[in-house]
Amino acid sequence: MSRRLLVVALGVLTAIGGFVDAGDLVTNAVVGSRFGLSLVWVVAVGVVGICVFAHMSGKVAAVSGRATFEIIRERLGPTAAGLNLLASLAVTVLTLVAEVGGIALALQLASSVDHRLWVPVAALALWLVLWRVKFSVMENAAGLLGLALVGFAVAVFLLGPDWAELGAQVAQRSAATETGATYWYFAVALFGAAMTPYEVFFFSSGGVEEGWGTKDLATSRLNVLVGFPLGGLLSVAIAASAAVVLLPAGIAVDSMAQLTLPVAQAGGTLLVAVVIVGLVAATSGAAIETTLSTGYTLAQYLGWSWGKFRRPAEAPRFHLAMIVALVVAVGVLMTNVDPIAVTEYSVVFSAVALPLTYVPILVVANDPEYMGEHVNGRVMNFLGTVYLVILVVAAVAAIPLMIVTEAGG
Amino acid sequence: MTRDLPRRLRRACAAVAAACVTAGALVACGPAAVRADDVNALRSVSDHLDASASAVATARLAVRARATGRLPSVTADATVAEAAETATGAVHGIGTLTVAGQDAAGAREKALDAASGAVGPIAAVRTWLGGSPSAPDDVLRALDDAATALDDADRMVRRTTGEVAP
After folding, report:
1. Which positions carry the signal peptide feature in this UniProt record (chain B) (predicted)?
2. How many domains does chain B divide into?
C-alpha cells in the first residue's frame, strides 16, 4: 500500500515538475511583464484542455496497450495520419529547438558563458541521456528537479505584493499600453504553450514504455488531474513574479535572464540558484520529451520498432530519428537565431497545429474497437467537443494575429 | 480533356495555395521596421525606444540586486549582456528606418541619439560587474540619465505622431 502511494506521489510530483517547459517559461514571463495577470484565465483554460486530452491519450495507451499515433494511422489511414504527422512533427522539432536553446540560456545564467557555446554541449548531453538512461529514471529525475521552479511561487510570497491589486489584474481584460490584437495574440500563444502537441504523444507513448494497463487508469488520471493543474500554478507564479517586479519597472521580458530579477529581489542568491536549477531541469526534461516525441511519432507512423524499453540496437531507426532531430536543433540554433524568438514562434505554431493533433485522439477515444467499455463518457465528449471549437478558433486566429501585431510587437 | 480538367483544377488550386502560403510567410517574416509612412515609421521608433528603455531598466535592476548581494555576478553579467544586445538592436532598428518629413526626421534623430546613448551605460555595467567591488552610484546615475533621455525622445516622437498633445 505504502509502495503504491509512493508511486502515485512520484507520478504527481513528476507531472508538476515536468509541466513547465521553455514555452511556458518565456510566454508566462512575457505576458506577466506586459499584461500583469490579466491573461491568467488562458492558463486555466489551457490546463483543463491538456488534462482532457492527456487523460484521453493515456487511457487509449492503457486500454489498447498501443500508443496514440499507431492507432491514428490505423484508424484514419495513411493520408490523414500523414497530415497529422507533418503538422505535429514540424511543431515538435520547432519546440525542440526552443528547448535546447532554453537549456543553453539557463546554463549561461549559471556560467556567463555565451549560450551559443552551450548548445552543442546540451545536445550531446541530451543524446547521451536518451541513449543510456532508463526511461523512468530520466522522466522522474527531470520532473523532480523541475520542482525547483517552485522558487517562483516562493518569490511571489516573499515579495509581499498587494494581493488585492494582483486580484484586480486577473479581472482586467486588457493592458493600458497594449492593443486588443496584442492581448489576443498572447492569449493564443499562452494557450498554445499550455497545450503543446508533443505532451500528449509523449504521455501516451510513455504509458506504453511503462507498460500501463487498465489497472493503471486511476494512477494516470491522478497524475493528470492533480499534477498538471499544480504545474499550471507554477506557470501563474512565473507570470505573477514578472507582474510584481518587472511590469512596474517598465521591463518587457525578451530574455530568460530577466526571469531571475524578481527572484533575486525576493530571495537573494540562494533562491536564484534554486530557480536556475529548475530552469535547466524544466528545459532539459522538455527537450528529452520533445526528442523522444519526434522518434515516437515517426516510428509509430512508419511502423518502425520504437521505445526506450528496447535496446538501441533493436530500435535503430527510432534512435536515428532522435539524433537527426537533435542535429537539426543544433543546426538551427547555430545560425545565431534568438532562442527566445524561436520559443515565441513555437508556441504560436503549436496553436495552429492543435486541431490536427487533438481531433484524432478524440476519434480514437470514442472507438469501441480499441477502447471496448472504456470509450469516452458524455462528460469527456462534451469537454472534448468544446475544446475542439476553442482549438479551431485559436488555430485560425493565430497567423492573422501574428501578422497584425508583428508577432506581439 | 474532361478527365484532365479536375487535375488541372487541382494543380491550379495547389499553385494558388502555395502562392498564398509563400506570400503569408514573407509578410510574416518581413522586417517590421519598414513602414509605409512617417507616422507608422515613428511608431516603430517608439517601439524601439520602449525596448531600449526596458534594457536600461533591466540593467538598473541587475545592478541594484548585485550591489546588495542578491544576484550572483555570473547571472548579473548574463542578464546585462542580454540587455546590451537589446539596446544595440534598438539602435540598429531606429537607424535603419527612413522618414520623409522634417519633423519626423528630427524626432528620429533625437530617438537615435537617446538609444545610442543608452548602450554605453549598459556596457559600463558589465565593466562594473567584472571589476573590483565598488559602490554602484556612478553606473546607476548614468543609467538614470539614459532613461531620462529615452523618455524625452519618446515624448517627442509621440508628439510628432500626434499621440500626445504638443
Report:
1. 1-28
2. 1
